[in-house]
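Students often ask what a 'structure token' actually looks like in practice. Rather than answer in the abstract, let us consider DUF559 domain-containing protein, a protein of 134 residues. Its sequence is given first.
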Amino acid sequence: MSISDQVTMFYNAKPHIFEKAKYLRENMTLAELKLWELTKEKKIRGLRFRAQHPIDIFIADFYCHSLKLVIEIDGGIHQSSEQKEYDIGREAEINHWGIKVIRFTNDEILKEIDKVIDIINKICIQRKLDLEKI
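Now compare that with the structural description of the same chain:
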């Protein structure tokens, strides 16, 4: 991997972030596994999504580099006020890189996956159009 790939795809993520991302890929939650089955191998609009992808000091649940799009899956912990505050700051940092973040709950993934995939498809279409304007 070249230095420019390190900067552009991983946004200067350090080695320990890659190690943690690998661990998270090997220990995905049920909701993450379900969404991964439907996003891997370019199953959504021919787009490549990466699971547990390093971005700077963060790890995105799913990332599509060509659209600069992150998909986050929020478990119950994300309902606490402290975690919500952290998520807002984290999302702002990721947005700083020009990356859009969308969020779904575990329940949405596990109980309404068809609706989730439909939303992701629509967002991917719009995101591609938005990036073409830049």
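One point worth highlighting: Residues 75 and 106 are 5 Å apart (CA to CA). Ask yourself how you might have guessed this from the sequence alone, and why that guess would often be unreliable.
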